[in-house]
Specification:
Length: 332
């Protein structure tokens, strides 16, 4: 085993001891901590499940065969290589390259530190009252800055952005868009987005694996599941939300903690139009065979935000309600 793998496993073992305590205190008070610790290590070594997978999929309630059926964090990375060429993956990883590739589906203004001059970026910031700056190749909602000229935090946010750019960090800076009123009803502090996971199998047949609505928790401005947001599965037949929304580590909500909107039966406006758009996007770049597409529903229509390769294995299988590893192998 290579040294970096040994170090990675050692760090995970250390983290698992702390995580076993968290599980004992919060969910499994009657279980032996040491046995939970060993189970966390077992799932990591055998199938590549990290703590988020273990807790999200409630592996303490799953049989060995059920556990084997889930896409793990490690397996999800393998699927990225199996379903996408390196060149296409780089386009999806680089948010500016993605916006250029799918320009006809993107209507908001944007600039990036890799494709535009400092002067152009300055003009953009002074022209748009509200902008969102995202690290160019990061994911999970980390490191995002919102620059609202009418907010008392604007100056500090702008200074932070300029310092990070000066330090060599690359950003895409986009005009801030907002949801239509019906979607805003759930969480009005964030841009709430529809995530649709698609797979093109080896016969070039399209499969819509899952759809979810992602939204903020009422405190932050991001809808990202991995950065404090929530995700609620959408019934593909009805276009309505299902009973529970999920926060990180499988925390469940029947209604939004801030707006108190009940999720079950909530209709997603323009859902069928979303699905038509998704079909167009898939065939726009058929070499990207396993993608999580993010769409915003606005008063001006549908807006493509991102394509994620690979989509998060956690929220995807929250939506499917079961492990889909073997199904993915058939489609590969």
């Amino acid at each position: 085993m290579k040294l970096h793998k040994v170090i990675t496993v050692f760090k995970y073992v250390q983290a698992s001891w702390a995580n076993s305590k968290e599980l004992c205190l919060s969910i499994l008070p009657d279980k032996c901590r040491f046995l939970i610790f060993l189970d966390l290590i077992r799932c990591y070594l055998l199938w590549g499940d990290d703590f988020n997978d273990y807790r999200t999929f409630e592996f303490w309630n799953k049989t060995t065969d059920e556990r084997k059926s889930y896409i793990s964090f490690r397996r999800n990375d393998k699927l990225r290589f199996a379903f996408t060429s390196p060149d296409v993956y780089q386009v999806f990883l680089d948010k500016a390259a993605f916006n250029q590739r799918f320009a006809k589906y993107i209507h908001r203004a944007w600039v990036s530190t890799t494709k535009h001059s400092r002067q152009t970026i300055d003009i953009f910031l002074h022209t748009h009252d509200v902008c969102v700056a995202k690290p160019l190749t990061d994911y999970g909602g980390h490191g995002i800055l919102k620059l609202d000229r009418y907010s008392p935090e604007y100056s500090s946010s702008e200074q932070t952005l300029r310092k990070r750019i000066s330090a060599g960090e690359d950003f895409i800076i986009e005009e801030c868009i907002s949801n239509s009123s019906s979607i805003r009803e759930i969480a009005n502090n964030s841009l709430n987005t529809v995530r649709v996971v698609t797979v093109l199998d080896q016969r070039q047949e399209l499969h819509v694996v899952a759809a979810l609505l992602r939204f903020g928790n009422g405190k932050g401005f991001t809808d990202n599941y991995h950065d404090g947001g929530m995700a609620c599965p959408i019934n593909l037949s009805t276009g309505q939300l299902t009973k529970f929304a999920y926060g990180m580590n499988n925390v469940k909500y029947e209604r939004h903690p801030s707006s108190h909107v009940v999720f079950e039966g909530f209709p997603i406006p323009e859902f069928q139009d979303c699905m038509k758009l998704i079909t167009s996007l898939v065939w726009e770049e058929p070499s990207a065979r396993y993608v999580g597409w993010d769409i915003a529903i606005t008063d001006n229509g549908l807006e493509l935000l991102e394509g994620n390769i690979p989509p998060g294995e956690d929220i995807t299988q929250i939506a499917t309600g079961k492990g889909i590893w073997y199904q993915m192998l058939e489609w590969k």
